[in-house]
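agent> fetching stored inputs for the adenosine-2'-5'-diphosphate docking request
agent> found them:
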Amino acid sequence: MPHTPHDPTAPRIALVGATGAVGETLIGLIEDRSFRYREIHLVASPRSAGRTLEVDGRDHRVSALDTFDFSCVDLAFFSAGSEVSRKWAPVAAGQGALVVDNTNAFRMDPDTPLVVPQVNAETLTRRPASGIAANPNCSTIPLVRLLRPVEDRWGLSRAVVSTYQAASGRGHSGTAELYEATRAALEDPSEPGPQVEFSPTLAFNVIPFIDELLDSGFTMEEQKMLQESRKILGLPHLDVTTTCVRVPVRNGHSEAAWIECDDVVDRAELVALLAALPEVTVHDRDTPGAFPTPRTIDEANHVHVGRVRVSPHNPRGFWLWVVADNLRIGAALNALQIAEELVARGAL
Ligand code: A2P
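agent> prediction call returned; pasting tokens
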């Protein structure tokens, strides 16, 4: 279908962090999904100001954030890190833009909805009091999309989750460091290579530590999964406990999730329930035991589920293996789906 990017009824949009891993993915999705806009402004750090990027076949110059005027846009996507969002998202909202923020900066703010459109789109019925709609953490999004219908059908009592998170979660520099460290280790196995994004080295290694350590002994990444799941699902006492692990995968986060319900779960019904969800592929459906992997998923805009196992000695509980593209499902696609929902509801 031909795309009409310069639709006069469509929003004027800004992409802050347009040159980054999430920003570039967002540009690709805007093109793929024919997201309609009247104007598009690409914004990044002064390092990138003046660079040209192509969107929908047209060249656009990148503007520097510190001189950008958000009063000229209706919608601003922020994917430039928490520090940038903390400082600039309220400025953008104050200048009249509705912000869709990809970072951790405002997720737990009571005036900011935390949105996964497939789960709680109803939180977008009007402009948020803060002027910001927050995109959840990359590992939280696929999990809550699967937990919602399970809670509705069997009641949720707990989720115990281990994540296997890809290098691209740290942006372009994370992916580059994985390649560089791997190259260095192949030449000399005693050589750790660079350790700026990941420490110790991620080459031929796994690191059970993401983000900062909290007094509780959990990491911030682990706490995010608990707090965000509770907020999105509207279940303030839900027991979600996680171990978040960085693995030497380029892109695509995986999760092993043990989910315990209030009632006994029937495996065939569970598989059918998950397979009926929008944009979810259940690999186990026709081939019990089948599984997705970050390198083999074909539909990158789907949450992929496999290894569906109801426990024989505790049939209230089951395991899922979940794979989702963290740059898409976990960031840019969810952000764009929030924007699509805002447009559809006339909330801009
Ligand atoms: P730039 O490319 O100019 O550094 P990634 O997640 O791949 O690391 O990308 C981060 C994104 O955030 C990039 O677009 C980067 O722009 C942008 N960014 C980082 N720091 C700032 C800042 N202080 N002001 C505006 N944009 C920033």
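agent> quick read of the result: The first strand starts at residue 12 and ends at 16.
agent> awaiting further instructions
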